[in-house]
Amino acid sequence: MRLDPETCARARLARDSRFDGRFFVAVRTTGIFCRPICPARPPLEKNVTYYRTAAEATRAGYRPCLRCRPDAAPGSPAWGLVSTTVRRALQLMRSEREAVSVERLAERLGVSSRYLRRLFSEHLGTSPLAIWQAERALFAYGLLRDTGLPVGDIAFAAGFGSLRRFNAVFKQVYRRTPTEVRREAEMPAPEGGRSSVRLYLHYRPPFHWEQLLAFFRQRALPGVEQVVDGIYQRSFTLEGSCGLVRVRHEPASRRLAVEIQGQVGTALYPISQKLRRLFDLDADTDEIDRVLSRDPLLAQQVRRCPGTRLPGAWDPFEYALRAILGQQISVAAATTIAGRVVDRYGSAFHDDAGNVHRLFPSAAQLAGADFSGLGLTRKRAETLRGFVEATLAGHVDFDTPDLEQWCAQVTALPGIGDWTAHYIAMRGLSMPDAFPASDLGILKALGKGQEKARPKEAEARAEAWRPWRAYAALLLWQSLSPENQA
158: which of 116, 149, 333, 461 lies 20 to 30 Å off by Cα? Predict the structure, then answer.
């Protein structure tokens, strides 16, 4: 992404929230960098330098503004990066709790470490390590300001192996120690008991929370998920600990408030990344709406619901199984059967109030399961078993960023067709260009009168929607009545 100084100047002077997180404003006279929406008096243009990322600004020697808090800025859309390798590297870095060496990262990506460093420099203006350090220091800053967690717990939650290393990196980024930041912060009152912590996840408007909740409510997995009184809740297990997340919308602050219950301190950063993908908080909604509005049918839906988000999944494996269960049956039937899978094979745990919740079973827990007596056909049960076995054997790569590669590997498995592969990619992997062209709802929405479109016709029309065909699919489903949605 190349920054246009004139566009950046107009955006910061207007404090345009649509550009929040897309670039940062560094002020040479103060040594501070800000978000474009910073409420402070705007500096003169001659004293300003624009950077694409917070990491790039900190690498140049600037410290984050304590007023607008760059740590709270929405993320930049990862899918907008030019390099697929950089995109996948960022995904791997953010999925790991601790830092991964450039050499190990390059090995997992199948490239040389020298080439990977060059790609990061070209696309993000800095090194992988600088990106990791800046992102984790910014995350830690938010915990210091917004939670009552001890500094030592925050260091490990941010992925640092030692408190000494955390203090050194944090001071390098913020020009002050974690203890000094904690002392300056107005600490919120403790909420939800000692095993509860609250995070705030920011986004760029527009953001249609009610639309997302309606989608999740219709598909809520019994015992695992629920949507009640405007709050999304689900159980999870991560890094050997289980817990509960509750998410509510704070529109005035353009953020989601997340309460996490459970002893999951070291997993806070991965949890935040999973939630950002679940609610598609980093979507490039302006660009998506611009491209899709070229189609008259989609333009109507964009006007009705600007800023459509792609509902994601907490865990790709969990969603893949649910997509396989949903082949050729209704949403309600698939959700019911998935609930039976959870009841039979999932573990249970109690929250602080003593309520019982269930966890979706892992691939290891489902090894050897026969899935009989759940309402599945024999063939569908065989497909589930085959997918579980392929996952355990390492034949299913949930980290692949390439849509065609993903579809090729899963459709090679018995009983999985193109619709299922694209639907898993769309929601389980959050791939923006996935498009289940044979979906009945899509064909109805694209048809004329009572006559449905054909899959090849849908694919041909969808070429103009690339690389946002998954969002187009959502808009087409929304154009139908609720009972006919996919």
Answer: 116
Rg of the chain taking only CA atoms, in angstroms: 23
Note whether residue 92 is domain-resident.
Answer: no
Condensed to tens digits (0 to 9), the pLDDT of residues 209-257 reads 999 999 999 999 999 999 999 999 999 998 778 899 999 999 999 999 9
Range of the domain at 449: 316-339+362-484
Long-range contacts for 230-238 (Cβ within 8 Å, ≥24 apart)?
234/314, 235/349, 235/357, 235/358, 235/359, 236/271, 236/314, 236/315, 236/359, 237/347, 237/359, 237/362, 238/264, 238/267, 238/270, 238/271
Alpha helices by DSSP H, listed for 37-112, are: 54-59, 84-95, 102-109
Residue that finishes a domain, picked among 235, 261, 282 = 282
34: annotated active-site residue: yes
* Residue among 34, 65, 68, 407 flagged as catalytic: 34
Torsion region of 141: left, alpha or beta (phi above 0 gives left; psi -120 to 50 gives alpha) = alpha
From the candidates 280, 282, 351, 439, which is the catalytic residue?
Answer: 439
Distance CA 459, CA 472 (A): 12
End-to-end CA distance of the chain: 35
* Domain count for the chain: 3
Residues of the chain with pLDDT under 50: 78-81, 189-194, 483-486
Which two three-digit tokens encode residue 218? 């219709």
The reported pTM is 0.88
- Residue ending a domain, among 50, 67, 84, is 67
pLDDT single digits (tens) 95-108: 777 788 899 888 88
Whole-angstrom distance, CA of residue 114 vs CA of residue 269 = 28
Q: Cα separation of 366 and 379, whole Å?
A: 17
- Which residue type occupies 91? Q
Query: Active-site residue 439, yes or no?
Result: yes
Q: Would you give the distance in Å from CA 356 to the centre of its chain?
A: 27
Structure token digits, residue 203: 């986004």
Task: Please give the pLDDT value at position 332.
Answer: 93
Give the per-residue pLDDT at 481.
61
| Predicted local confidence at residue 191, as pLDDT | 46
* One domain, residues 263 and 327: no
Burial class of residue 6 in the structure, from the number of CB atoms within 10 Å of its CB (0-12 exposed, 13-18 middle, 19+ buried): exposed
